[in-house]
Amino acid sequence: ITKNTKIIALSWIIGAIANLILNYLLVPVYGIIGATYATILTFLTILIIMKILVAHGKDSFSTHTFATILN
User: Fold this and answer.
1) Cα distance between residue 34 and residue 38, in whole Å
2) No. of H helices and E strands in the chain?
3) Which of 47 and 66 is assigned the larger pLDDT?
4) Quick one: pLDDT at residue 43?
């Protein structure tokens, strides 16, 4: 497994954990809208993690393209 694969996997694992926690907190209160918010916040979490990794030069796959999209 390459370094890039580990970075992507770690981002998605953290995102999955965030999604479980957010769903647990938001769905009982807001129902389906809470699930929507949890999903949106999860994807934002994954995006932020990947942006941080790209900004610190820990990622070599299409860094320029990915950073350009996020900025």
Assistant:
1) 6
2) 3, 0
3) 47
4) 94
